[in-house]
Amino acid sequence: MRVDLFATAQEIPGTDWLAGRTAVVIDALRATSTITTALHCGARAVVPFLTPEEAKEAARSLPEGRYLLGGERHAVRIPGFHLGNSPLEYGREEVAGREILFTTTNGTRAIQAAAGASALCVASFLNAPAVARKLAESGRDVVICCAGTEGTFSLEDTACGGAVLLELERLGVTLSLNDLGWVALELYRSYRGREAELLARSEHGRRLIGLGLEADLGYCAQVGVINAVPVLRDGRLVI
Amino acid sequence: MRVDLFATAQEIPGTDWLAGRTAVVIDALRATSTITTALHCGARAVVPFLTPEEAKEAARSLPEGRYLLGGERHAVRIPGFHLGNSPLEYGREEVAGREILFTTTNGTRAIQAAAGASALCVASFLNAPAVARKLAESGRDVVICCAGTEGTFSLEDTACGGAVLLELERLGVTLSLNDLGWVALELYRSYRGREAELLARSEHGRRLIGLGLEADLGYCAQVGVINAVPVLRDGRLVI
To answer: How close A155 gets to chain B, by Cα (Å)?
Structure first.
């Protein structure tokens, strides 16, 4: 199986190139951890939007109580939104049966950039083994699109891509990797079991700790605790 | 010392950001290995150009015998040029006393992109320890600009950046690194002494091997065999 891993959505060669591939979008701190958690906890769908305005516009056509507005800018909840971007806010009591209209700085942009792929799913450490099983079953070539942080490489997303790759290897899949995919796999092989340490060492992780969000890091560092694999269908993430 | 490592020239935040920093440009396979070798072997200067046409234009104002046109497109010597991009072509008999008018696909572009830095030098495995000593002496913050391959991450450049960082660490410099800098250091720490293996594993290395250029990889994988540090002065690389 050919797997290309890109550090940011900007590096994806283009929509034609995506056709025939499965895209795996990763924003481990915190968007894709939050999406995975929300759907695991019974949200009907998570609908990604590029801007807060687009999310609010979509909310106007939905009955009160049917939806929640969620997301962040600069790691902080958007004014007028019900929820921020902490997965710990997306428990069953909050989200079950509701649609989450969702926008974040890097994560939703990466989802939009990869939407031209033949299939798109969302990964975090939480569901990395489940994502790998799904990829192995499909057998299709894969592009792992890390969200990155403000257009640059991020440690946590690349390591999480490595977690998916290591799991594919353990499932017996023979991998053909681009350079960054190989580095991601090597990195995760060295740091497996020390995910919390990696997250706390990343630039984005340190910023979140500075904002008092250390509990989010601990949550997002858990590997394989959720079996749900969010997939994009008609612009909505569902399981 | 703050050190930011970027996988490609496109990721550099901009000229303002470069001011006050030393830029280290790396295209380990093969442009910066070739530049380092040429200057070590007595070339008067290596003058980087973005295009073959610009290099040829500059040649018109120089007396015959004073200069050599060198460089590649798609890893192959440019028609009408004296030399390609193999460091093994740049021996003392060829280059001593001459100016090399030089253009390559990724390397010269990275040099141009980083030219706004307060100082710019060129690194390869060959001179990585010498580059680190120079950086440690200056004490200025550093940006390591990998050339990458066609706008994407390359294993060999990142690992070479890691070699510079490990040497800085061994010199007792306390490093503050961005995420990719940290990954580069960890990667090189794991693969130190196995540089040839790393180069042969990289996508670009495999392409060169396919073109029969395996000897270039063996040469470029040697660490610390040259003490010369090429620096950019008035658009010319000199030592």
So the answer is: 5
CA R_g for chain A: 16
Instruction: Please name which of B114, B139, B89, B136 lies closest in space to residue B10, comparing C-alpha atoms.
Output: B114
Percent of chain A with pLDDT over 70: 100
Q: At what angle do helices B155-170 and A179-191 cross, to 10 degrees?
A: 50
Pick from B2, B153, B191, B201 the residue to mutate for testing the A interface (most A CBs within 10 Å).
B153
Q: Which residues contact B239 (CB under 8 A, 6 or more apart)?
A: B39, B40, B228, B229, B230, B231
* Window A:114-133, CB contacts with B under 8 Å: none
The pairing of strands B236-238 and B231-233 is antiparallel
Interface check A234 vs B, CB under 8 A: no
Place of tokens 């998570």: A46
Average pLDDT, chain A: 96
Per-residue pLDDT, B149? 86
Rounded to whole angstroms, how far apart are CA atoms A146 and A149? 9
Residue B14 at interface with chain A, using a CB cutoff of 8 Å = no
- pLDDT of B21 reads 97
A210 has a chain B CB within 8 A of its CB? no
Average pLDDT rounded to a whole number, residues A56-62: 96
Disruptive mutation site among A153, A176, A177, A208 for chain B (greatest number of B CBs within 10 Å): A153
Whether A82 and A101 have beta carbons less than 8 Å apart is answered as no
Q: Determine the residue of chain A that is closest to B201 in CA distance.
A: A179
Whether residue A200 lies within 8 A of chain B, CB to CB, comes out as no
Residue numbers of chain B with a pLDDT score lower than 50: none
pLDDT in tens, A125-165: 999 999 999 999 999 999 999 999 888 999 999 999 999 99
